[in-house]
Amino acid sequence: MALLASAAGETAAQPNEPSRRLIPKYPANLDCSPLTSLVSSWNDVDGSKRDEPHSGVDGGRLGEPILAPASGTVIALWTANWGWGPEGAMLIRHSRMDLGLQSGPSYYYSEFDHLRYAEIRSIAVGQRIKRGERLATVFRPGGKSQYPPEVHWEVWAIDDDAASKWTKNKFGGAYWKNRTGHLVDPLAMLALNTPHNADGSVDIPVFDRSRDYRKFRGFTYILPCVDSKRKGGEPSDKSER
After folding, report:
1. Which residue of 81, 144, 154, 228 sits 20 to 30 Å from the alpha carbon of 138, by its own alpha carbon?
2. Radius of gyration in angstroms for the set of CA atoms belonging to the chain, rounded to a whole number
3. With contact defined as beta carbons under 8 Å apart, do 186 and 153 qualify?
4. Cβ(189)–Cβ(20) under 8 Å?
5. What is the spatial distance between Cα 6 and Cα 157, in angstroms, rounded to a whole number?
6. pLDDT attached to residue 21
7. What global pTM score does this model have?
């Protein structure tokens, strides 16, 4: 669904982002739960038009696990409302060390919206999260059955962590601001280990619990992928169960 930008920073390309729009390319041997709406899209997955360009990516099927894209620290859990009704939201802070980066912004924030608050309320602010850890499951905007299932994931580059402030929107939902924040296409952060393809597609790195990620840079995919030969069965070892 369309989502109003939740942080009062600028929507700007980062140095590691190409000027053209990126599109996901999933591994040929896996059936991955797809992203259904990308950054800057004006068209929602249900065919409706957005009021402004999309600030993140949407995807997932109802009840599927949402996986942490990298290690980080939970810095907020709250009830958000963007006009569809109350819903759970989560904010994770990733340091450069968490992401295997030597330079760039001090932090990257991952925000997840359209969650069940009941699923995340037991998570503690300040809790450390591991890459690939199950955060919640895919639900619906505001929990309303008329909206298609999806998780909204947006990424922010943050220079000054202390500059974050909280306020409320016209629906009474809490949201955060950071004057140093800049939106980043999550696909750019998924593409730090392999070059972009000639057609602008990004090879999606699927989380593999058997892999050593100490030399990996950036994010891994947040949705499950199943071995195409086992489609309809249990998730393969290339995704968190």
Report:
1. 228
2. 17
3. yes
4. no
5. 13
6. 78
7. 0.86
